[in-house]
Structure formats: structure tokens, C-alpha cells
Amino acid sequence: MHSDAFSAHQFIELALDNQVLKFGEFVLKSGRISPYFFNAGLLATGEMLSVLANGYADALAAQMKDDNQDELVIFGAAYKGIPFVAATAQALWLNHGINAKWGYNRKEVKTHGEGGNLVGADVSGRAVWILDDVITAGTAMREVVDILSNAGASVAGILVALDRKEKGQAEHSAIQELAATLNVPVQALVDMDDIIGYLEADDSPYQDATQLAKMQHYRNQYGV
Ligand code: OMP
Asked: Phosphoribosyltransferase domain: from which residue to which, for each copy (predicted)?
């Protein structure tokens, strides 16, 4: 199994080539109007899922260096975090020999069979790494933290594909707020500055001065 080191530049290019990352005008969950949107639902090929999962697995393996790796529990937030957590558990095993426990939530509570809204590894009493796609203002992530807390779990860390590096509830970025509130590492594979840096790069096939100006303007408005 080959596993190249994750490259933000390559990931951004792959995302643009496959319309995962798009430029235009998008209304975000926070109500902000953004000149770009990252749709992780379109990471819908074996190659893209592998690149993402290998990136998540490398980041987690680096975080776990000094800890007991057998204690690693990873949790995917419904819905988009679910395939990512499964693929990452596999990448951790195949690339790093780390046998992580993994689970996820479902949005609809099941009232028959085993019941409940959590699936997979038992998270009760465990410190869990949350995997998700994007952080903007941090609302989605705070909901996941509540789900875990209601299940008797604590948060060991947060890992997302994209940190849009935007203001959260106040002047700090959503990631900074989460890190400060929970006192855990919060990490992203790629952030808004990487995307701007990619657009500025001389060798970028997506060079576009108008788009770059819109991105910079948006960053001035909502960025930190
Ligand atoms: P917050 O809850 O504001 O942090 O927004 C994060 C969520 O917004 C993600 O989980 C996505 O559902 C969605 N989103 C994207 O998927 N891609 C983006 O580029 C921006 C958003 C967004 O609406 O902010």
C-alpha cells in the first residue's frame, strides 16, 4: 500500500479538478456569503477518499506519538464524517499499524433493535478524536461535542479537512475558540490561507486575479 505524505497544494488541486472546491457565490450555514465552497460530499472517488484518509491518518499518528496508540478512538460526525472515519481507521491500520476504535452518530434516533444514535465503538468514558469535513463558525462541531458529552465521552482532539479560518462566536477563529473551550488540539489538513496561497502560486493552473481579490476581500471581512 503506498501512502505519499499529504500535500495541501496537491489536495487543493485535486479538489478543484473534481469540483470539491468551487468558486462562485455561496450562502453558508452561518449566513455568510462566500466566494468559495468546499463540498466534501464530492470526494467521491477511491483516489480522493484515500488521499483524505491517509492525510487524516498521518495527522493522527503524529498526534499519538507519545500516547498509547491502542487508546485511539475516532468518531465521524453524521453524515459526511462517516465514510471519512471508516477510511481513516483503515488507513491508520494499513499505514501505521494503529488499531483505532471507530464509530459515528446517526441523525435519526433508532427506536428498535439496538436503539440509540451512536454506532460502532463504545465511546462512553473514552476521550475521542472527532473527524469532520469543514469548520466555519464552529456550530456543527459544537453539536458533535454535545452528542459525545451526552454519551459520556470527552473530546481528545478535533481534525477536519478544511479550516476556513473564520471568526467563530466572537473575534477569535472558530478553531481557536474550540481549542480554548475544550483544551484539546484542533487541526486541519488545509486552511483558507493555503487556498489563497495556491491561487497566488505562479504554477497554478487556476490563477485568476479576480477570484484571488474576492478571496482576499472575504478573508478581510470574516477571517482571523
Ligand atoms: P459551521 O457549523 O459554521 O462551522 O460550518 C461547517 C459546516 O458548514 C460544514 O460541516 C458543512 O456542512 C458546511 N460547509 C461546507 O461544507 N463547506 C464550506 O465551504 C462551508 C460550509 C458552511 O456552510 O460554512
From this structure: 58-169
